[in-house]
Amino acid sequence: MYKFRPATDRIKFMHKLIRDRVIQTDSERALITTQSYKKNEHVVPIIKRPLATYDVCARMTVRVEDFEIIVGNKAKNFLGSGTNPEWGGAGWIPSEVENGNWTLWDDGLYHNPEGEELKLTIAPEDLEALNSIREYWKDRTVTTTANAWQPDGYEELCRLNVSSYLPGSPLMMIPVGHLTPGFEKIINVGYKAIRKQAQDWMDDHIGNLMGEDMDKYMFYKSAVIACDAATIMVKRYGQECLDKAEKCKDEKRKDELLKMGEGLMWISENPARNFWEACQGTMMYQLFLAVDAGYPAMAFGRFDQYTWPFLKSDLEAGTITMDEAQEIVDAFFLKANCFYGAAPGFIAQTTGIGNTYQHTTIGGVNRETGEDATNPITFMVLETIGRLKLHDPTISLRINKKTPNELWECALETSKLVGGLPLFQNDEVIMAGLINELDFELKDARDYSVIGCQEIVGSGNDYPAPNGVHAPHASVHYGGIFDMAINNGINPFNGEASTLKTGYLYEMKNFEDVKAAVRAMSSYILKLFVTINNYTEYLTMYHCTHAALSISMEGCMESGKDCVCGGAKYNSYGGTATGLATIADSLTTIKYMVFDKKLCTAKELYDAVMANWEGYEVLQQKILSEVPHFGNDDPYADEQMKWICDTYYDICKECYSTRSKVYKSGLYGASDHVAQGYHTWATPDGRKTGEALADAASPAQGRDLNGPTSVLNSSTCFDHTRYMGGMAINLRIHPAALNGEFGIAKLRDLTKQFFEEGGMEVQYNVVSSETMRAAQEDPQAYRDLVVRIAGYSAYFVELNTDCQNDIIRRTENAI
């Protein structure tokens, strides 16, 4: 059995601070950004944006806590949160205070309601400061610009309420993100060399800018400003360490601070020289991106691969011990947990409290040789997650045919401690998919990483926008689409009618007519949806260029083109179709009940669905108990899952944009299956209005009755290499099944067999229904219970009741 080593006292102390966090929002970034935008009011966005970032980096508060060995704060306070006025103006908190939802406590701070799981505060002076910039930003945010005008079709898409474009919601609410930045380039090349590349090009073209040269000049100028901004920020952290060292009485800590200060001064311009500098340099660049624009889902990528050469060199030189290295890894991921910011309650419940989406990928193969790339840091990352019971960042473990058994054991022991982590990703399937679907070179396919929930991307060379051009606009709601398809284009949830008319279920003469209606409505809605994505891409190329990100992305500095304009080596975008098992089961129900067994008429089934099963409970129970369901290794049911997944993929292949010829299909979705269920009418599989859809690519909750092998066999009924947006298959395993080495070996072999048969991904919740019900009764006693929802893990007691019950409803498997 794999044994986890204990954490050091200061790591335990920092962990407790994070676990007990109360996030205080401040106005610092907002005020500096506003002043910068006023100063550069009429400067074009490609220059104005990095100038604002420079001003923030030069003036923001830098903090070095007494217990820290990896530093970097994204706001003024420890565990604090700033705001991005260029997107949201004064933000959402001032209106919460005005509406009386937040109240002033005796500690002098405004607090959000006591019943909310996420604890938030703001000081009166910061509230006043945010209110002071309201008028300036009223008509100047990116969101305002995007909301001012939309192409034809947008109004229909919103009112139908079958996608993440909803009435009244912002068209562009956050920057484009969801990728793996070029951390390896930053720590191996350094900002000074990147800046020189840009400056040299400009120097060679002074007074001689012809044709596309002007576009390149504007990009390189923005890159120079971005490099200067990063350098000044990192230097300021170095100086803060040195200043604290001067006052420090503890000689050991003083020496540590001096080394940290000197190291930060060095990496402010130059490549990292050792393991600590590699880790700190990675974190500094991540902080720089957070300060620049608050990009969503900036994944850390293959952390164990790009930091291992530095640790290997240190170990060979005798300048570090394994225990010291482990503490650095612990500190790194605890610092990553500090990047979570304030969010409204409804967003926190969908995206997960404490989830930063800094997905980290470990294991896999060497990009040059294709051989297994497991190294000591691979284990260290799992140790950090397991022994500290961290639900974030999400960890993906890449599996290949030569993954050592010791790593399997460590990973599955981690899953027992931390539900759903790591995610197991199949190298053979994913690398083949990247080559076939996205034209990746072999070495780049070998170097893939996973971001966000499950999205598959290149490492530092890919601008993939897999969660929509402007997240969170990736989701088309197939439950609602299905209902519209059998209801002549009318959404029964709100009565809104589509332009496309498909007829009513009871008018369809055979099962092929049903499938034709579903395909037609799916194509109509998805193409409407992608059209709006393409419009936001058009806006992004002018209003939202990303110099800070582009300096690290392979292809951008070489081509002189920002990543949002197609400068990266690889380009794609895409979305997700969570809950297709609900659609598959609905199709199977119609085929079985109406056309094959003739146990009811199409009109009877239609009426039952439209009545939300009220008065049709006998028919509902017959469907639930008799009709075959996806997830039981039954070809009759699996045939429909294959059809709907293939149909979704085929429609995606018909979509493209200026920047990208590929719109990727994905089968993942945070906890979106629960949120979608709230506004999806009843479906023919027996599901009632408001109930959750199936999560991600998993079977519908409680419908898989034949054990995990059957679930995994069913899951390979369609070709996983097509779904390069990513995939999530959740299985819940009773903890008793993993007692002892035999249980661990059985789950390892089950996973291996699934991968050999073409499975892409699987994640395990090792938790019993009994434990989760006990946690509902006594949350404090189960405070560190971690579970996997679909696209993120969470502390069970911080989930809303619907999400908790959704997990409990999932089948509890033995192996």
Supply the CATH class of the largest domain: Alpha Beta
How many beta strands in the DSSP annotation? 21
Strand order of the largest sheet: 6-7-8-18-17-21
Measured distance between first and last alpha carbons? 18 Å
Query: Which fold does the CATH topology of the largest domain refer to?
Result: Anaerobic Ribonucleotide-triphosphate Reductase Large Chain
Can you tell me about this structure?
This protein has 815 residues and is α/β, with parallel strands linked by helices. It contains 34 helices and 21 strands. The chain has three domains: 144 residues, no CATH class; 283 residues, Anaerobic Ribonucleotide-triphosphate Reductase Large Chain, CATH 3.20.70; 251 residues, no CATH class. It has a six-stranded mixed beta sheet. Helix 16 crosses helix 18 and helix 23 runs parallel beside helix 29. The longest helix has 35 residues.
Briefly summarize what is shown:
The protein has 34 helices and 21 strands. It has 815 residues and is of the alpha/beta class.
Notable features of this structure?
single chain; 815 residues; 3 domains; six-stranded mixed β-sheet; five-stranded mixed β-sheet; 21 strands; organic radical; PFL_dom
What's the arrangement of secondary structure elements?
Layout: H1 9-19, E1 23-25, H2 28-39, H3 45-59, E2 80-81, H4 85-88, H5 93-98, E3 103-104, E4 110-111, E5 120-122, H6 124-132, H7 134-137, H8 142-147, H9 154-160, H10 183-189, H11 191-204, H12 213-247, H13 251-267, H14 275-293, H15 303-317, H16 322-337, H17 345-351, E6 360-363, H18 376-388, E7 395-399, H19 405-417, E8 423-426, H20 427-438, H21 442-446, E9 449-451, E10 455-457, E11 462-463, H22 478-485, H23 511-543, H24 547-550, H25 556-559, E12 570-571, E13 573-574, H26 580-596, H27 602-610, H28 617-626, H29 635-652, E14 663-664, E15 666-667, H30 672-678, H31 708-715, E16 726-727, E17 730-733, H32 740-756, E18 761-766, H33 769-777, E19 786-788, E20 793-795, H34 801-809, E21 812-813
Parallel strand pairs: 1-2, 1-5, 6-7, 7-8, 11-12, 13-14, 15-16, 17-18, 17-21
Antiparallel strand pairs: 3-4, 4-5, 8-18, 9-10, 19-20
Helix pairs in contact: 1-16, 2-3, 3-12, 3-14, 10-14, 11-12, 12-13, 13-14, 14-15, 14-16, 15-18, 16-18, 18-19, 19-32, 22-23, 23-29, 26-29, 33-34
GO cellular component, one term: cytosol
Domain PFL: 9-688
GO molecular function: lyase activity
